């Protein structure tokens, strides 16, 4: 998968929080198979740039994905799609 600008996928004025929109967007890519298990996600900084959002917002989205068991974080290595 090639990560490109995703800022158009975020509705800053809508009722859904930005971090939830990011988490939902990444989840949709995982569920569609575009991001298979063990795929490495871009860093927090890279995701913030891709979505044109703050790094803290990305961190909150990733935390939600970790809590849901969708991704795992390996300290010093990155964030990876969890095995199903």
TrEMBL record:
Record protein name field: HTH gntR-type domain-containing protein
Superkingdom of this protein's organism: Bacteria
Keywords tagged on the record: DNA-binding, Transcription, Transcription regulation
HTH gntR-type domain ranges (all copies): 16-84
Keyword tRNA-binding: no
Presence of keyword DNA-binding: yes
UniProt cross-references to InterPro entries, sorted A to Z: Bact_HTH_transcr_reg, Tscrpt_reg_HTH_GntR, WH-like_DNA-bd_sf, WH_DNA-bd_sf
């Amino acid at each position: 998968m090639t990560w490109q600008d995703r800022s158009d996928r975020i509705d800053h004025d809508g009722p859904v929080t930005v971090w939830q929109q990011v988490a939902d967007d990444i989840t949709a890519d995982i569920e569609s198979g575009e991001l298979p298990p063990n795929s490495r996600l871009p860093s927090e900084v890279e995701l913030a740039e891709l979505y044109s959002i703050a790094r803290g917002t990305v961190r909150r989205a990733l935390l939600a994905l970790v809590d849901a068991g969708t991704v795992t974080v390996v300290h010093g290595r990155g964030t990876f799609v969890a095995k199903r």
